[in-house]
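Lab notebook, bench 4. The sequencing result for the construct came back, and we need a structural model before the next group meeting so we can plan mutations. Quick request posted to the team channel:

Model the 3D structure of this chain.
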Amino acid sequence: MNTLYSTAVTAIGGRNGTVRSDDGLLDLGLAMPGSLGGKGGATNPEQLFAAGYAACFGNAVIHVTRNKDRAIKDEDVEVAATVGLTPNGSGGFALAVALDITLVGVDQATAEAIVDEAHQVCPYSNATRGNVDVALNVKTR
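Done. Here's the predicted structure in token form:
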């Protein structure tokens, strides 16, 4: 299998540490959210995951419409990702995701079909399928 892209990020200190990418473009302090008993004031793994999933899913929408009658342009797709941390019942934790996708310039049925197709090609969707509950909420403008 050919790898199309690869990156490496190192985390030091867990949820109250730092993350840094191999190229230095990502270099952030982390903090446990206040709602989990931490000090807050910095990003956390769930926010980073939500950002990555939202951006990736938006691009999947653009990708699946490239050769269709109505291609979705960059500015015509908005994805808001909500990532929740939940107990898994076995002493560990699980993630739950909701993607609120807004498409401009298409009707509701078309938007839903595009989002369904994007959910099949998005790497984050493929990685989470069967492991993470992902709710897709589609609307148009």
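Helices lie at 45-65, 108-121, 123-128.
Will bring this to the meeting.
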